[in-house]
Amino acid sequence: MRPLLLLLAALAAAPASAERLTLDRIHGETSLAGPGVRSLRVSPDGERVTFLRGSADNQYQLDLWEYNTKSKATRRLIDSKRLVPTEELSLEEKARRERARTAGLSGILNYFWSPDGKQLLVPIAGNLYLVDAAKPDAARKVASGNVTDPKISPRGRYVSFVRDQNLVVIDLKTGAERALTTDGKGTIHNGEAEFVAQEEMSQHTGYYWAPDDSAIAYRRYDEAPVPVARRFEIFADRTEVIDQHYPAAGDPNVLIDLMVVNPATGEQRKVDLGAEKDIYLIRADFSADAKTLVYQRQSRDQKRLDLVAVDVATLAQRPLLTETSKTWVEINNDLRFLKGRNAFIWASERSGRKHLYLYDLNGKLLHPISRGEWGVDDILAVDEGANKVYISSNREAVIDKQAYFLALDGSTADKPTRITKGDGWHEAAFAGNGKLFVETYSNPNTPPQVSIRKPDGSMVEWLEKNELNANHPYAKYLPDHLPTEYGSMKAADGQTLYYSIIKPANFDASKRYPVFLFTYGGPHSQRVTRTWGNYFDQYMAQQGFVVFRLDNRGSGRRERQFTDTLYGNLGKHEVEDQVAGVDWLAKQSFVDPKRIGVFGWSYGGFMTLRLLAAASDKIAMGVSVAPVTDWALYDTHYTERYVGATPKSNPAAYEQSGVFAHLDGLKSPLLLIHGMADDNVLFTNTTRLIDDLVKRNVQFELMTYPGAKHGISGRTSQRHVFGMIESFFKKNLGGTEAK
User: Fold this and answer.
1) According to the model, what pLDDT value does residue 626 have?
2) Distance between CA atoms of 451 and 446, rounded to whole angstroms?
3) Which strand (E) or helix (H) includes residue 312?
4) Do 579 and 496 meet the contact criterion of CB atoms below 8 Å apart?
5) In 3D, which of 708, 593, 614, 693 has the Cα closest to residue 656?
6) Given a cut of 80, is residue 92 above it in pLDDT?
7) Which of 3, 20, 140, 486 is within CB 3.0–4.6 Å of 445 for a Cys-Cys bond?
8) Does the domain formed by 153-331 have CATH 2.140.10.30?
9) What would the mean pLDDT of 111-133 be, rounded to a whole number?
10) Catalytic residues, which ones?
11) pTM of the entire predicted model
């Protein structure tokens, strides 16, 4: 059934006592999306599908559940409150959750299957439990203290984790615990990913197991060279002074080493990463036979990436391949070693779009696996026996995500076979052998539906059908649910920009309405998608606003010509495109061109400031949350990648890419919001802006949140901040009535 027909059917079944959507309900204890699931995994034996789900009375407290593929029964395996009634998190764990974007959640945030599918490793609040999948009530604590990044080794002999900056293993046969490193303290860290690796490289681990349990490759870094940013984390009842090693653009990075350790003996060896020490170690991987260690080394300017092979026995090295770019080489997590072909899959954007290539273990290109005027998002699974690699892509619609398979032998490089059905957003979690996958599907009218499917996409069983019937938590709001329309326009250089628009409640085409323009605008981000869950957009449309989003040049999941446009001058082309969107809105008969406002967070906060500075004659007001105001204050890996220089090597690029050089044009009302303990976009960005605006005698409003990090997370804080945003829009756009 088509999404619109599904929605109409749901509307017909909705209760007569309909209610309007409220901010209290959006940020309530229970989810409007229904019984949502996350961290979907198929057990190694294929008998269970496990997932995390919020408790019945609190969507933010996550428990571990399973669906048994034989009995067709769903049950809660582990009640997180039973394991740990009250969580007390270390500062390191709080920072790690902020990096992983899980701040605000509690309970079980991750888990791992043993290779035989009989046990689960469950970390919670710094403790580590082994759980028998058949007898989950008998959870056994195997480690405690400040435990982070736990894993079960590939063969299942060991449990490994990081504690107090050292790498530790437990031999599950003997129960003996061994600290593989002991020098981790102060500025020395073992087995961890450094700040920029976590924040900008999507590297949330710092150690990598060999597939036969014989070795662990791990990062050892010293952050002593990194300047200390003294942050004052201001809470409601106290102020804490935090000395954080924060590598701002142009500053020294950590000194990084790659080590190899034998988990049985503790024997340590050091891999030579080359003469140039000012590099980024992206990640390391072992070949399928565990004889070769492969690491990725990126130059400081990020225009070169080397893939290097290391003989594990001798540590002798040989280069496999090198990627170069005039702007930056994009990194990914798609390297896959094949067991039966003495080959590996490599993802590259060398053609201008991300595609997959097959190489032999000497670094010889065998053939492309994919090619064409489309790109691969990610590798989902590899089934060597079936000659298939499963991928996600927006091949047929930029605003959608679908799953496909390709032949490993390259015979289908131009024509992948789509296995997911229905326009919208499909997330697929495959079994390790590629023989089964769990699909989460949604679109703007369909909340997330979770099903178990065969590799060809055919249905096996619903895991969570999540029908929008009278019992669904969103049912009472369905009568006021407004459709999302999609369209495209051209940028100044002819490239295609995609937008979404929600017209307000009780829409009358003869009247003019105010506009709520949401923007992010930064690289790696796509905000115009055919998916469920933009509740605040729905809410603002129901309050009488035209809600508009536009993905400008530089946004994610597009070809390199599109993303590279922003290189060297952040804000310029992004602002041009958003202003083009504002001009398009102003021409619509149902838009009041004098009542267009903009809101953005993080990069979107930066964009809000730049938009008001560039077009206060067209944009009536703005809300900027946690903005970067001076890119010299932001971290090395992100900033130098896109600005293409350091503040010292090209100060003009930083001046033009920031906010301060453009503030003469900022005339419209501004609400500035920032968390007072933000360790990502440091609060200094806002204090500097405050000082500059005061000197210019520019009036503005300010809201700061004591103790809040970058996401200003937590139910009450989220409810408050979005209430502030709504109020500011209503106050400055003269009410929401149509004119």
Assistant:
1) 98
2) 14
3) none
4) no
5) 614
6) no
7) 3
8) yes
9) 91
10) 602, 678, 710
11) 0.93
